[in-house]
Design goal:
Helix content: 55-70%
Largest sheet: none
Strand content: under 5%
Shape: elongated
Structural class: mainly alpha
């Protein structure tokens, strides 16, 4: 079955998911999204659950990618530089 591996990659369902009854596992971007949402809502139970979906390294990468995308979107929206936006969000003086 030549297309099997390519289909697994496209669908997100790999051998591990197949062993779990066909359930698709969480990817690092889903984990990052859910983790940041839980942090924003101060939902410690959800934070703990989501942190187990992927490795700490993958979660860190996903959170960093989400932060970068969010800052870029805000900077475009505000017609400001990403540096100005990040400093504003953190309550730092702009230089």
């Amino acid at each position: 079955m030549a297309g099997g591996k390519a289909q697994e990659r496209r669908s997100g369902v790999g051998p591990a998911a197949a062993r779990e009854g066909g359930r698709r596992g969480h990817n690092l971007f889903e984990a990052a999204s859910a983790y940041i949402s839980a942090c924003a809502e101060d939902d410690q139970e959800r934070i703990d659950e989501v942190a187990s979906w992927v490795s700490p390294e993958a979660l860190s990468f996903g959170v960093t990618e989400l932060a970068c995308r969010a800052v870029i979107a805000l900077a475009r929206d505000r017609d400001e530089s990403p540096g100005t936006v990040t400093r504003s969000l953190l309550g730092l003086p702009t230089t």
